[in-house]
């Protein structure tokens, strides 16, 4: 997009959690933008409740983050980094062998007596593979013993998995943190409740980071429970706004719409990609982080707010020194 440089300035990358910068998790900055009139406000995440009203609904993704990065050994004794991405069925997973060339039927040794057998490339991807995972103990126990959080070069140190969890996380299953909700604290949730802002959750287990330009979307497992579907209907009837906490929530909700345009309780898999041409049907606003120029998520933001508004807000974020990535600042997009 025109509002972003081709490469994000390093000074705007969040290299560590806000707690390591002397802040509470809810102390990050919050840029609030209104796409109907292009108003922009600057705040802190603790101010979030004052931008929402008693008829509004926040929907968040309660998937917990797995320490899904492992070290694997090849037959020649060399090591590679391996990221678990998406559970398929049984022992089959979509995995990402990082920055290396692998072949079908190759067997990699894992710590503690585990193995993984690479079966075939996933769809049309050159980096994702379907693999059979054989572990000596249940997955979650194994990963908490031998795995580590997936992290990218802009994060300069290793941080414990607890710093990659939201305060409302439930079932573990995401390869990477649903990071839009990381800044929520128990205090912020309590203040929202005092303002009668409804807060509901759904579950979408996220895979590894954004698709590369040549890749087809891969499926992710999601579940929209009855209470959340009912809350959306009540919010619309009351004239309130539905605000998704993160792009994963938009993807799940838009995948649960029936032929009458209503969100219904749904459990399944989705490979939905939301673009400006497709548009959105069920959300009015979005709480998210800031996305890099090549991120596929920007198309979804454009579908909600429009390209012109995004250009204005991202210019304001760049000029204002807001921080990017999962440990960075937040952006609340409202009508």
SSE topology string? EEEEEEEEEEHEHEEHEHEEHHE
Query: Mind summarizing the main beta sheet?
Result: 9 strands, mixed
Please identify which CATH superfamily of the largest domain we are dealing with: QueA-like
Please tell me the overall pLDDT. 93
How far the N terminus sits from the C terminus, by CA atoms, comes to 21 Å
The residue fraction in helices comes out at 10-25%
CATH architecture descriptor text of the largest domain: 3-Layer(aba) Sandwich
Strand order of the largest sheet: 2-1-17-16-14-3-12-13-15
**What's the assembly state of these chains?**
single chain
Total count of strands: 17
Beta percentage is 25-35%
What is the gyration radius calculated from CA atoms? 20 Å
**Which structural class best describes the helix and strand composition?**
alpha/beta
**CATH hierarchy class name of the largest domain:** Alpha Beta
> What global shape is seen?
globular
Task: Compose a concise summary of this entry.
The chain has helices at residues 139-146, 186-194, 226-238, 247-254, 297-305, 307-320; strands spanning 29-34, 39-44, 57-61, 64-65, 69-73, 79-89, 92-97, 107-109, 115-121, 129-134, 172-174, 198-204, 220-224, 242-245, 266-270, 285-288, 330-334. The protein is α/β, with parallel strands linked by helices and 335 residues long.
